[in-house]
Amino acid sequence: MWHPALRKGAKPIYEQLIEGLERDVINGALPPGDKLPPQRDLAYRLKIGVGTVTKVYAEARRRGLLTATVGRGSFVAPSGEAKSAEGNRTVDFSRNISPHNAAAARLGDALIALRRRADLAEHLSYPPPAGVTAHRRAGAGWLARSAGIVDVDWKRLLVCEGGQHALALAFSSLCRPGDTVMTEAATFFGVKALAEQLGLHLLGLKMDDQGLLPDALDRAAAGGAKILYTIPTLQNPTGRVMGAKRRGEIAKIARERNLTLVEDDVYAPFAQGDGLPPPIATLVPERTFYTASLSKIIAPGLRCGYLLVPDEDRLERVIRTVRAYSYAPAGFGALIATQWIEDGTADEIATSVRREIVTRAKLTGQILGKAIEGPHVSGAPHVWLPMSELTAERVAGRALREGVSVTPPSAPIVDAREMAGLRLCIGAPADLAALERGLRVVESALSDAPGVSGRGVV
Ligand SMILES: Cc1ncc(COP(=O)(O)O)c(C=O)c1O
Predict the structure, then answer these.
(1) pLDDT tens digits, residue range 190-202?
(2) How far apart are CA 101 and CA 430, in angstroms?
(3) pLDDT grade, residue 71 (50/70/90)?
(4) Is 190 in the pocket of ligand 1 (CB under 6 A)?
């Protein structure tokens, strides 16, 4: 039976209750389908007025946290993922999706605020190709708060339809078919897909526990490669994080070898508070295309991301690409995102998502132990289990037979001589119970896999 703790003299009771209810639904303490106590019972036990409880339940229904049936009472609403997990008991570790209950809980308010906007109808027209000015300014503010990239000139910032779109715009305006792009030896699958589409050759470079190795970059650049795509923070798939010194070394080589960088920073908001150094773009802004997205830390359905370009010339080139592909970015996702950035809701959602991922990361560490590399920060949404390609395929196959899907081991690999392993996206399972169930299956699939570090621990 739900019995929230109330603190005297802290926030008003109503706020404490609605926040507590939301927190318990998000972290799985109140799983989907659980019955809430009758309003009178809860009011009696908490020694508060029944009117307050009625108001809290009504607000929770409006936020999509509860459902109510006359005569039966109030129940925790099933999340989209929970519904499908209930159906077939599958657990999905394959896609990098963060829990978006916190955003879902605020969506109703955001739509009400949208309806009240005097300028709403203006958004039915074509937006400017780089996005609405207010959205670009808000994006610049968000990057300062969430990724430590301060003093962003919003006039060099484009609003995009997510991180993938930002990357597509950067590479389409930078490269010609046949060009070589240097990447980490294992990288974001979306960039492999993009390279195939654009006819680009990817050159995977050696990594260590901080990601890309400067020596490997220098050698490849000496061989004539001119463009580097890198993910310095919570590298996908490995979760590695470049320290300040490493970032400086990469920037120095970029300057000396006249390289252009595409720095993908979609995971930076997860590492804020872990002493994260500023992005490489702050060291060599004149040669870096910097990409960011709200998909992971707020919600992917907003399709809102950002591309920061080095200068006006390059901005013009990217705008020509925008014109050719979509004429202008879609505006409504960015409109909600901008509202949330401006009124502080985005920060609240980010804090909630980060907290949830930290909890999940702890549980993952407890169950998989030393089979996991790192941890590189306290709340990484994906973890990396180094092992041979063959072992990874076998573990993935065994897990799948038990209803647990992981990222196909070959998907992120650029140079199979340098990297092999298994990636688990721990934000994707519906709740902590599903996460634990999936982790137990992986633990068992690992237990008799040869060559997994930490074998015997897991
Ligand atoms: C490193 C990296 N960059 C970009 C993206 C794409 O972001 P979005 O979903 O906003 O298109 C992802 C998504 O998985 C990613 O992992």
Answers:
(1) 999 999 999 999 9
(2) 10
(3) confident
(4) yes
